[in-house]
Design brief:
single chain, mainly alpha, six-stranded mixed beta sheet, 24 helices, 61% helix
Length: 571
C-alpha cells in the first residue's frame, strides 16, 4: 500500500536533512568547489608550457600520433654521436631521428589524447596566446590528478578511517604543488597516479594474505601492482625506485615466504620492462639509450647542457668518475637538506617525518611507511647523479605523505580530548588553512605571466614556418621549435667546428635561431669564455668568415632579444 502524501514529504525532508539526499548534496557541493578551484587555478596560472621536458614530450606525442613511431624532432648532437657509435645501423639519422632519451608511456598517452580530442597544432596565434594543444595536455594531467585523489581516498579508507580519507583528499586538492605538477605538462601527474595506485594494490595484496583470503584475492592485486610499477618506469625511468620499496614491503609483511614473493616481484618487473629495453638495444645499442649519459650534464667536464650539445663527447672512465663524483656530492647534500624538508607544501611533511618516531598498531601501515622512505632515499641517491628533473619525482610520494601526515594529525587531535565538537572542527580547519596557504598566495594577484622570455609561440612559429618541413634548423631551444614549429631542430653544437662538421658532412643546416636561453647568460663566464664562446661573434651581431648563414633579422623587429639567421632571404 502506498504511503500517504504527508509521509512521503517527511521522508524527502529527512533524506535532504540527514539521509542519502544530504550526502548527495554535500558530494555535489564538494565537486562543484573542486571544479571551480581547478578552473580558477588553470586560468590564472597557465599561460603556456615553460618546461623543456614538457615540450619535448609533447612533440614526441604528436609525432607518435602522426607517424606511428617514437621519433623526435629535437635532435641532440650527443644523440647523433651515440647512434653513430653504438647503433647497429651506424647512422646519424637526422630525419625520423629515433628518440633514445625518454620512455614511451607518456608520449603514447599524449598521442592517444591528441587523437581523441582532435588537438590543434598549427593555429594563427596572436601575441601571448596559448598554443591550443597545450590545453589538451593540461586536461589530460588534470584527469590523472583526479584519479590520484580517488586512489588516495581508497588507501586512506583501507589503512585508517573515513575521517583521515576525507581530510587527506581535501589537503591533496588544496596543495599548490599538486596543481603545479598538473600544469607543468611533464607527466608528473601521470607517474604519481601509477605510484599511488601501485601502493593501493600492494596494500590489498598484503591485507588479503594476512587475513588468509583466497588465492585470487591477492594474486590479482599483486599483478596489478606490478603492472603499475612497469607503467611508472615506462613513464619516467626514475620511478624504478618504487620497485625496491614495494619489494621491501612485501618482504617484511608476508611472513616466512615474504622475501620469496619480493624476489619474484623484482624478477617479474624486469620481465615486464624487457620489451622496451630490447627496443632500445635494437635501435641505439643500449638498454636505456642516451638517458644514462645525461648524468654527465652539469658536471665539471660538461657545464650545464654541453654534453648533449657535444658531437664528440669524452666518456672515458676517468672523465666520467671525476665528473659524477663531484656532481653527486653537491647534489645529494642539497636534495637531502632541502627536498625532503620542503616536499609538497611543507607543513604536512613535518607531520609525516614525525611519524617515524611513532609506531602504528597495524603492521602494514607501520612497514609501508619505512618501505616508502627506502624508495625516497634511493631516489635522492639517483637524483644526485641526474639532477633536477629526477628529484622532481619526489612528488610522486606526496599523496602518501599527505595521508600519513593527516593520520598523525588526527591521532594528536584525539589525544587532546577536546570536549566541544566545535573545537575539534576549529583545530582541523586551522590545519587545513595553514596547509592551503601556498595555493592561496599563488592564486592572489599578480597572475602568472606568459613564458617569454624565451618562449613565445608566435615568434617560434614565425621563424619555423620559413623552413620547409624537411629542412634542418639549429637553435638553443630545439624542444620549443620542435613542438611549436614542427621542424627538425638541432641543439646548437658545443663548438663552431662541430657545427661545420654537421653542416658539411651530415646534413646542411638551413637556419639558426638564438634566443634568451643563450643570450641572457652571463657575459664573461658563459658567452665570452664559457660554453657559448664559439658563438660569441654571432651574439655580438657579427657573422664569422665562411659561415653559411648570412641572412638574418632580430626579434622583436629592431631589437636584439632573439636572432634568426638563414642561408638565404626567406621573408
Amino acid at each position: 500500500m502506498a504511503k500517504p502524501f504527508e509521509s512521503r514529504i517527511q521522508d524527502l525532508v529527512y533524506n535532504v536533512d540527514a539521509g542519502v539526499g544530504h550526502r548527495i548534496i554535500k558530494g555535489v557541493a564538494f565537486f562543484l568547489v573542486l571544479f571551480v578551484l581547478m578552473v580558477v587555478y588553470t586560468a590564472t596560472q597557465f599561460k603556456g608550457l615553460d618546461d623543456p621536458l614538457a615540450m619535448d614530450q609533447a612533440q614526441l606525442g604528436r609525432n607518435l600520433m602522426e607517424h606511428g613511431r617514437l621519433i623526435t624532432q629535437n635532435v641532440r648532437p650527443a644523440s647523433m654521436w651515440y647512434l653513430m657509435e653504438k647503433s647497429p645501423h651506424g647512422d646519424h639519422m637526422i630525419n625520423a631521428h629515433p628518440d633514445i632519451m625518454h620512455p614511451p608511456v607518456y608520449p603514447a598517452l599524449l598521442a592517444g589524447w591528441f587523437w581523441i580530442t582532435r588537438a590543434g597544432f598549427s593555429p594563427d596565434l596572436d601575441f601571448g596566446q596559448v598554443f591550443p594543444a597545450e590545453y589538451n595536455i593540461v586536461a589530460l594531467n588534470h584527469i590523472f590528478t583526479l584519479l590520484t585523489a580517488l586512489m588516495l581516498f581508497l588507501i586512506a579508507r583501507r589503512m585508517f578511517d573515513g575521517r583521515v580519507a576525507l581530510l587527506g583528499v581535501i589537503l591533496f586538492f588544496l596543495s599548490d604543488s599538486v596543481w603545479a605538477d598538473s600544469l607543468s605538462g611533464t607527466g608528473l601527474s601521470v607517474v604519481t597516479f601509477w605510484a599511488t595506485a601501485a601502493f593501493y594494490y600492494a596494500l590489498i595484496t598484503v591485507t588479503n594474505i594476512r587475513e588468509r583470503e583466497g588465492y585470487r584475492s591477492w594474486v590479482v592485486p599483486m599483478a596489478v601492482s606490478l603492472v603499475l610499477c612497469v607503467l611508472a618506469f615506462l613513464t619516467r625511468y626514475g620511478a624504478v625506485v618504487l620497485v625496491p620499496g614495494l619489494a621491501l614491503f612485501y618482504g617484511f609483511s608476508l611472513g616466512r615466504k615474504g622475501w620469496i614473493w619480493a624476489s619474484l616481484f623484482i624478477v617479474a618487473f624486469l620481465i615486464g620492462v624487457a620489451p622496451w629495453l630490447a627496443r632500445n638495444q635494437a635501435v641505439s645499442g643500449g638498454l636505456l639509450g642516451l638517458a644514462p649519459y645525461t648524468a654527465l650534464n652539469d658536471t665539471p667536464a660538461y657545464e650545464a647542457d654541453t654534453f648533449e650539445r657535444s658531437l664528440h663527447p669524452r666518456v672515458d672512465l676517468r672523465t666520467v668518475w671525476v665528473s659524477l663524483r663531484s656532481k653527486f656530492m653537491v647534489n645529494s647534500g642539497k636534495y637531502y637538506a632541502e627536498n625532503i624538508r620542503l616536499l609538497g607544501d611543507g607543513l604536512l611533511t613535518a607531520f609525516f617525518l614525525t611519524t617515524f618516531f611513532f609506531r602504528f598498531a597495524r603492521q602494514q601501515v607501520h612497514v609501508f611507511r619505512w618501505a616508502m622512505a627506502f624508495s625516497i632515499l634511493i631516489l635522492i641517491f639517483i637524483a644526485g647523479f641526474f639532477g633536477s628533473n629526477t628529484i622532481k619525482l619526489m612528488n610522486m610520494f606526496w599523496p602518501m605523505v599527505i595521508l600519513y601526515g593527516a593520520a598523525f594529525f588526527m591521532i594528536l587531535l584525539d589525544r587532546l580530548q577536546l570536549r566541544a565538537r566545535i573545537l575539534n572542527i576549529g583545530v582541523s580547519a586551522a590545519m587545513v588553512m595553514l596547509s592551503a596557504l601556498p595555493i592561496l598566495f599563488t592564486l592572489m594577484p599578480p597572475r602568472a605571466n606568459i613564458p617569454y622570455p624565451p618562449y613565445l609561440p608566435v615568434f617560434i612559429t614565425q621563424v619555423s614556418n620559413m623552413l620547409e618541413p624537411q629542412e634542418l634548423m639549429s637553435t638553443d631551444m630545439p624542444w620549443a621549435t620542435a613542438w611549436y614549429g614542427n621542424r627538425n631542430s638541432l641543439h646548437v653544437p658545443h663548438t663552431l667546428d662541430e657545427f661545420y662538421e654537421i653542416n658539411d658532412f651530415i646534413r646542411p643546416v638551413r637556419a639558426m635561431y638564438f634566443t634568451q636561453v643563450s643570450r641572457n647568460q652571463p657575459y664573461l663566464r658563459v658567452l665570452r669564455t664559457g660554453r657559448y664562446s664559439s658563438w660569441y661573434m654571432i651574439h655580438q651581431g657579427q657573422i664569422p668568415d665562411g659561415f653559411p648563414l648570412t641572412q638574418g633579422f632580430t626579434l622583436p623587429r629592431g631589437q636584439l632579444d632573439q636572432i634568426f639567421l638563414s642561408d638565404r632571404q626567406r621573408w
